[in-house]
Structures are given as C-alpha cells and as structure tokens.
Design goal:
The protein is α+β, with helices and mostly antiparallel strands and 158 residues long. It folds into 2 domains: 58 residues, no CATH class; 88 residues, no CATH class. It is built from 6 helices and 9 strands. A 5-stranded mixed β-sheet has the order 6-7-5-9-8. Strand 2 and strand 3 form a beta hairpin. Helix 5 packs across helix 6. The protein is elongated, with a radius of gyration of 17 Å. The structure holds zinc ion. The site of zinc ion has 7 residues, from helix 3.
C-alpha cells in the first residue's frame, strides 16, 4: 500500500481532496483521471459504472487555487525563453504520467519573466529543478506556509 500512503501524505491537507467523498471508482468528466482503490491514476481503458466527478486538479485549475508558483527571470531567460518553455511543458508531461493531479495551471509571459502557477507544490519544485539542471543559474525555493504551498525563483543573469 505504498502508493496509497504516499497519496494520503501528499493530499491529506488538500481542501479539494478531503472535501469530496469520491465513490470508488469515479472518473473526472474534465480530464478523464480515474479514482480507484484510494488513488488517482490514468485509466488504460474505459471503466464501467464509474461515478462522474471533477477531480481535485481540475477543480484547482477552474478556481485558480494554486499550490505553487515559479518565476523564471534574468537576461539568460529572455534569450532562451522558448527552450525554458519547452522544459516546463516536458516536465509537466513526465510528472503528470505518474502523479495525475500535478499540473500547470497557467504560464504567463510577463515583462522580463515567466510566471508559472501549478496545482501542487511537487510539480512546481520539479519544474524549477529541471530548468536549474538544464540551464544552471540560481534556484531559490521558499515555503511561506509550510509544506502546502511553494514559491520558487529561478534566475540567471548572463
Ligand atoms: Zn480532472
């Protein structure tokens, strides 16, 4: 039951998770993620008799209720913007496969920076770390409200 333990640890404080009492199985009408055996996963085939829900990730996206925010700044970012945007999207694809609720809510291209909101803190950290690994620079991870929310700044000035 390691997967279930992990899920409970990660989402036990999530108001979007505990507020709902999902039937087992349930399927999200927006994204198709399946709730079965206490966890969310991508179904490999259609599940009969699944109740229709809106999953916590889709609810967060709809309500703009973010679990993390990541900023990418500096002149290196401006010159390599497309490369960094690709890293963000690829990282989301990879994370989402194994943790279906970990998603990007929005990517804003602002004056001199990229501003990314995510559903949970885990994917925010993964995105920051992926850019840091590929492009070096400086990464700062800050948890202003404990473990439930993360604010990340990546910066490279040259
Ligand atoms: Zn969904």
């Amino acid at each position: 039951m390691a997967r279930l333990d992990r899920l409970i640890q990660e989402y036990v404080h999530d108001p979007y998770f505990v507020r709902e009492k999902y039937l087992d199985p349930s399927v999200c009408g927006s994204c198709g993620v399946l709730f079965r055996g206490g966890i969310f996963e991508w179904p490999d085939k259609k599940v009969e008799n699944a109740a229709k829900i809106t999953c916590p990730a889709c609810r967060r996206i709809k309500d703009n209720y973010e679990g993390g925010r990541v900023f990418f700044e500096g002149s290196f970012m401006v010159e390599h913007k497309d490369e960094i945007l690709n890293i963000l999207r690829n990282t989301e694809e990879i994370e989402k496969k194994h943790r279906p609720l970990e998603r990007i809510i929005s990517i804003l291209e602002e004056q001199g920076r990229i501003n990314v909101a995510t559903t949970y803190e885990h994917i925010a950290r993964r995105i920051g770390e992926a850019v840091h690994k590929a492009c070096k620079g400086e990464l700062r991870i800050h948890y202003p409200e404990g473990q439930k929310y993360v604010r990340i700044l990546w910066r490279r000035g040259d």
